[in-house]
Amino acid sequence: MTTTDLPARPGLLTIDASPERRATADVEIVIPVYNEEASLEGSIRRLHTYLRDRFPLGWIITVADNASRDRTWGVACRLANDLEGVQAVHLDEKGRGRALRSVWETSQAKVVAYMDVDLSTNLDALLPLVAPLLSGHSDVAIGSRLASGARVIRGTKRELISRTYNFILKATLHNGFSDAQCGFKAIRADVARALLPLVEDNGWFFDTELLVLAEHNGLRIHEVPVDWVDDPDSRVDLVTTARDDLKGVARMLRRFAAGGGQVPAGALPEPGDQIETGLAAQLVHFGKIGLASTVAFGVLFSLLAGPIGSFGADIVALAACAVGNLAANRRITFSARGRAGRARHWRAGLLVALAPLPLTLLTLAVVTAAGAGSLFTDLVALTTANLAAALGRFLLLRRWVFGKAA
Question: Rounded to the nearest 10 degrees, what angle do helices 96-104 and 206-216 cross at?
C-alpha cells in the first residue's frame, strides 16, 4: 500500500492500493461512509471475501470516508493496509455524492460502482450489474427494488416513501428507470467522466440527478432486480432527504425547461466505442454464433441441394449465413454497435465471411470426383471445411475488421 500523507488535492487524503491493482481493475467499487465505525470492518471484510472467492473480474474496493467524526477513518486505514485490493479515501466535506465524485473522476477502472456500507443488496447481483457495462451493452446500470423479480424486505413506511418518490420522478421528469434511490449502481468510467461535470448535487440527490442526466442524453440504463433487506440502523434523515430531493427535482425541471443538461458535443463516447471484450469471451461468443450458423447452413443446404444442385446450394447457403453471422458477431462478439465504422465493418466482414467459399467449392469438387457425393457426405465435407476456416475468420475479424473494438 502507498500512503499519501499530503492531500492529492485540497481536503483529500488517500491510502492507495498498488498501482498494478488500480491499473488492471475492471471494476472499482466505492463504499461511501459517514460515522460507520461499528459496521465498516465487518462489511468490508465480507465484501472482500466475496469478491476474492466468487467474483470473476478484476476489482478494487475504495472506502470513501466523507468527513466522519468517529473512528471510521482509522478503521478504513487499517482495512486498506490489511486487505489486498482495498484502498481508502478521506474527504473533509460531507456528502455521499461528493465522495463518489471524488473517486470516480480519477478511477482507472473500466467501470465504477458503489454500494451502501450495510450491504443490503445481495452481492450475487454485482456481476449482472456490471457485465452489461463491460460488454458495451449499456452505459449505466442500477439495482432496482421495484422491478419485476426483486425480493425486498423492509418496513411499510420506507416502502411507501420509496414508491411515492419514484412516482413523483415519473410524473415530473418522465424517467424510464424504476428505482432511483437503491444504493447499488454502476456506470462506465468514460461515461461517468462525461456526466459528472453536469451533476450539481453532492448529497443524496446525486444518484437521481446522474440517472436523469444519463437518460436525458440518450444513454442506456440497465436495471437488475435485486434481493434487498432493509437496514434498521440506517443513518438517512428521511424528512431532510425527501425535502432536498424535491428541491432537486424542481431544479432539474427548470434546467431542462431552459434547454440545459446536455453533455457537450464529443464528450460522450461514440456508440461504437465500446469497452474491450476479452479474448476468451470473444471466442465463446464466436463459437456459439458459429454453431448456430452451422445448423442454419445445414438446413439451407439440405433444402436447396435438390432444386439447384450442391454447388449452387453451397453458394446460396454460405452467402445467407454470412450475413447473419456477421451481424451477430458485430453486435455480440465484438460489441461494435451504432453507426461508427458500420460501413467498413460490413464491407470487410462480408469478404472474411465469404472467404471459405473457394475452399468449400473445392471440397465439393473433390467429393464429387471421388464418386462419394451424397447429401450426407456433402454436408460432412462442407462442415469440416468451414470448421477448418473458422479460426482464420475469427483472427481476421478480430484484428482487421473490428480491430478497434477488439
Answer: 50
Q: Kindly list the distances between the CA atom of residue 19 and the CA atoms of 25, 36, 51, 60, 249, in Å, as whole numbers in the listed order.
A: 10, 27, 19, 11, 40
Q: In one letter, which amino acid is 1?
A: M
Within a domain: 406 = no
Q: Which three cell numbers stand for residue 41?
A: 470492518
Q: List the domain range (segments joined by +) for residue 159.
A: 2-257
Give dist(CA 245, CA 242) in Å, integer: 5
- Asked, for residue 264, whether it belongs to a domain, the answer is no
Rounded to 5 degrees, what angle do the CA atoms 16, 105, 242 make? 110
Specify whether 339 is located in the same domain as 234: no
* Number of domains, the chain: 2
- Residue 266: inside a domain: no
**Residues identified as active-site:** 207
Per-residue pLDDT 10s for the chain (406 aa) are: 444 433 343 456 778 778 888 888 999 999 999 999 999 999 999 999 999 999 999 999 999 999 999 999 999 999 999 999 999 999 999 999 999 999 999 999 999 999 999 999 999 999 999 999 988 888 999 999 888 888 988 778 778 888 888 888 888 988 888 888 888 999 999 999 999 999 999 998 999 999 999 999 989 999 999 998 876 655 556 667 778 888 999 999 999 999 999 998 778 876 544 454 467 778 888 898 989 999 999 999 999 999 999 999 999 999 999 998 888 888 778 876 555 567 888 888 899 988 899 999 999 999 888 887 788 898 898 889 988 888 888 888 888 887 644 4
Residues 109, 249 within the same domain: yes
Residue 274 lies in a domain: no
- Alpha-carbon radius of gyration of the chain: 26
